[in-house]
Write a structure and sequence with these properties.
Elements lengths: L1 H21 L3 H17 L3 H14 L4 H13 L3 H14 L4 H13 L3 H14 L4 H13 L3 H14 L4 H13 L3 H14 L4 H13 L3 H14 L4 H13 L3 H14 L4 H4 L1 H8 L3 H14 L4 H13 L3 H14 L4 H13 L3 H14 L4 H13 L3 H14 L4 H14 L2 H14 L4 H13 L3 H14 L4 H13 L3 H14 L4 H13 L3 H14 L4 H14 L3 H14 L4 H13 L3 H14 L4 H13 L3 H14 L4 H13 L4 H14 L4 H13 L3 H17 L6 H13 L3 H14 L6 H10 L3
Helix pairs in contact: 2-3, 2-4, 3-4, 4-5, 5-6, 6-7, 6-8, 7-8, 8-9, 9-10, 10-11, 10-12, 11-12, 12-13, 12-14, 13-14, 14-15, 15-17, 17-18, 18-19, 19-20, 19-21, 20-21, 21-22, 21-23, 22-23, 23-24, 24-25, 25-26, 26-27, 27-28, 27-29, 28-29, 29-30, 29-31, 30-31, 31-32, 31-33, 32-33, 33-34, ...
């Protein structure tokens, strides 16, 4: 026992002596850490390299070489922010470290920080005018700013300075391709490959060019050459799969990836390709099943776990997603990806306030996390704060210009608001980020369709089909183009093709049903909805479309009610079905049922202001003024600038003898939001009338009549009644009589007819 103690003590003393020896010479220590970091870096172990270079910096914060090498490791890990910080520090310590300046310039160009990048390139051009890499960086800067001709000039200088550089020819070829100099681009791609036959980027770039030109056999030759040149790199295999998809060879792509998965037993990017393929081609069920298998085989692979959780979220398998995600957070409560997933789950579960809090926790520690900003935008959108949501999406796009999801969200917001100019901008950005995805082309087709530029819309829709023939988006948009031109046979065929590719697409089914409805064939529209429901019985949107068709046809209100109820049963957040069910119940005289529908909708969707508005209107119809006011006030709490709620509340405040100044403020809010609404103009005019501002009131009542005529709403007796009263107050009896008599001609049973007759009797002309 004593001997063991002595041995242990001796071991501890040796350890202490060893550690003490390590701390003796700071200069020696920092060099040892640096050399260790460099060994890790050379072996491709970049995370370990970061740690060791960081240890060297802890010993000597002014160790410029360690800052620079740590920046290189961060760049390999694609962590731009810490790389930027280390490069900046390197330049502070070594102002003549031109390699660091060049790296910093390229990093800034990639982040679209062109002004800051130019500060570096201007200095580099002065100090190293003969460096081809400097001219290549300037070319990238100019290209990023959109000046492709000037960029080509700089790229050619890089080639002249180093005609043996494969990378220089590759950069030049890519710029020539952007300027549609396809023959020159092809020639320079080939020169890049001749200089370095194993250059995977050059082989893949030439293959991508051939694919875009639909020279598929040549594209396949280049992609397979890239696979042979770098068999351990999954990227060439991904390129070949994209080619197969472009050719419509989905089965070939799937079989190839099944084999490739066996070739990458230890490479995450490699064994994940099959699951990612299923997801990219719209087969979410297969993707989820594949990732379930990967999760079982690689339970510690963080990317597998993250992707699997994402798929479960998209499939609304939220309990499973939560269980796996919570296991991560149990071990690492600050894991940003897991917290972001928790935020997504909370949004989908109808708790967007909780989601916003979770995502703000991520942003507190990492304010530049673009993904967190994006998902916070989704949570805020669910809360009814679209303007705040757009701010978050714009922040995400600014922080990570290569992230396509914020652009899609901004495009969706532009689509909802009818801002076609913004939609065109976002769609074009999406095309630039993902030229092989149909989404951007399909969205831009919407823009041209709205402008009735049918040829351009058709070109973009055709492009969407060409890049993704297995995707429904292009066929759907082409169907809409044909429908707009009343080419019903073509539109019917295209929407059916879209549904063959995506049996769950509400957009495609809606287009097919509209094709029949415009031909006055409502029975065919209903039959199409029922047929698609039989294929996808779990789609709330399909029942909503069926209910809408039956509602509009007016022949089967019971069937419409049943369809809307089924849509809501499948998705209690289907706001369209909830709105229409309430409308249907109201128009069929079942006011109490409609009110119950909207109150239930409010319970499930408390941040949706429309339901408060609808409930308020029903309370008004029951002359329950206090409950009506409470509903409008709730709507304004959710959406403070909601003009319809502001208008209705203002009117009720007047009707019930409330504060006129409060009513005035609300009416002004409504007028700002709905400047072309005759009802809003009339409400504001009526409040001004109550305050004795009769001339201003007359202007607004006249505006209400003009807007009503322009909007083809028909004559409104109330507008004439109010205008007649205002004319009487301003001693214009002839005009007052004219307006009041008009009231009785429009509606002899007008609710205020007795007062109108009294006013007419008292008028003296």
């Amino acid at each position: 026992m004593k001997t063991t103690y002595v041995r242990l003590l001796a071991g501890v003393l040796v350890g202490v002596a060893f550690l003490g020896g390590c701390t003796g010479n700071p200069n020696e220590r920092k060099h040892k850490y640096f050399e260790s970091g460099q060994r890790y870096y050379d072996k491709g172990k970049y995370r370990e390299a970061v740690i060791q270079f960081g240890n060297a910096i802890q010993v000597d914060p002014a160790y410029a070489d360690a800052h620079y090498q740590r920046a290189q490791a961060y760049l390999k890990l694609q962590q731009g922010r810490p790389a930027f910080q280390d490069l900046t520090r390197t330049i502070e310590l070594q102002s003549d470290n031109y390699a660091a300046r060049l790296d910093l310039a390229n990093l800034l160009i990639g982040a679209n920080e062109f002004k800051q990048a130019q500060e570096q390139t201007d200095l580099l051009l002065q100090k190293q005018p003969g460096n081809p890499l400097v001219h290549a960086a300037v070319a990238n800067l100019l290209a990023g700013e959109g000046n492709v001709p000037a960029a080509i000039v700089e790229a050619r200088k890089a080639v002249e300075l180093d005609p043996t550089s494969s990378e220089a020819y590759l950069g030049l070829a890519q710029l020539e391709l952007r300027s549609n100099q396809t023959d020159l681009a092809e020639s320079d791609f080939k020169k890049a490959i001749a200089l370095n036959p194993k250059s995977t980027p050059a082989l893949l770039a030439l293959g991508a060019y051939y694919q875009s030109a639909r020279r598929f056999p040549e594209a396949e030759q280049q992609d397979r050459a890239a696979i042979s040149a770098d068999p351990t790199n999954p990227d060439p295999r991904s390129a070949l799969v994209r080619l197969f998809i472009a050719e419509g060879k989905k089965d070939d792509a799937e079989n190839f990836l099944k084999q490739s998965k066996q070739d990458f037993p230890d490479n995450s990017a490699g064994y994940r390709m099959l699951g990612d393929f299923y997801f990219a081609t719209g087969d979410a069920q297969k993707a989820t099943a594949e990732y379930a298998s990967l999760y079982k085989a690689h339970p510690k692979d963080a990317q597998v776990i993250q992707n699997y959780v994402q798929l479960l979220i998209l499939q609304n398998r939220l309990d499973e997603a939560t269980r796996i995600n919570d296991e991560i957070l149990k071990d690492t409560p600050t894991d940003e990806n897991a917290l972001i997933c928790r935020g997504q789950i909370q949004t989908r579960e109808g708790h967007p306030s909780d989601a916003a809090n979770t995502l703000r926790t991520v942003m507190k520690s990492d304010p530049d996390n673009a993904t967190a900003h994006y998902h916070l935008g989704l949570a805020l959108d669910a809360l009814g704060s679209l303007s705040e949501a757009q701010n978050e999406w714009q922040a995400a796009a600014r922080l990570n210009p290569n992230l396509v999801e914020p652009q899609r969200a901004l495009a969706g917001a532009a689509l909802r608001s009818g801002d076609v100019n913004a939609l065109e901008q976002y769609a074009t950005t999406i095309i630039g980020l993902q030229p092989d995805s149909p989404d951007g082309y399909a969205l831009r087709a919407v823009v041209f369709l709205n402008r009735r530029e049918y040829l351009r819309a058709e070109q973009d829709a055709q492009r969407a089909i060409a890049v993704a023939p297995a995707n429904a988006a292009g066929y759907t948009q082409m169907g809409k183009v044909k429908l707009a031109q009343q080419q019903f046979g073509d539109s019917e065929k295209l929407f059916q093709q879209a549904l063959e590719r995506d049996p769950t697409s509400p957009d495609a089914l809606s287009g097919l049903m509209n094709t029949y409805i415009l031909q006055k064939q409502p029975d065919k529209a209903v039959a199409a909805a029922r047929a698609q429901i039989s294929r996808s019985p779990g789609s709330s949107a399909f029942y909503d479309l069926l209910g809408t068709a039956l509602f509009n046809d007016k022949r089967d209100p019971v069937g419409a009610t049943t369809a809307f109820q089924k849509a809501i049963e499948l998705d209690k957040h289907d706001t369209d079905a909830l709105s229409k069910l309430g409308q249907l119940e109201a128009v069929t005289g079942n006011t109490d049922a409609a009110l119950a529908t909207y109150l239930s909708a409010i319970a499930d969707n408390p941040r949706q202001p429309d339901f408060y508005l609808y409930a308020g209107g029903l309370y008004e119809s029951k002359e329950d003024w206090e409950h009506a006011k409470a509903m409008y006030q709730k709507a304004l709490e959710v959406s403070p600038d909601y003009p319809l709620a502001a208008n209705n509340l203002a009117f009720l405040i007047l009707k019930t003898g409330g504060n006129v100044d409060v009513a005035l403020s609300l009416a002004q809010t409504a007028r700002r939001g709905l400047p072309n609404s005759p009802n809003v103009a009339d409400t504001l005019g009526w409040i001004l009338y109550q305050k004795g501002a009769y001339k201003s009131a007359i202007d607004l009542f006249q505006e209400a009549l003009r807007l009503s005529e322009r909007n083809k709403n028909g004559e409104d007796a109330t507008f004439h009644y109010h205008l007649g009263l205002a004319y009487e107050k301003t001693d214009q009896p002839k005009l007052a009589r004219q307006e009041l008599e008009r009231v009785l001609k429009i509606d002899p049973d007008y609710s205020e007819a007795a007062d109108v007759k009294k006013q007419l009797a008292e008028l003296t002309t």
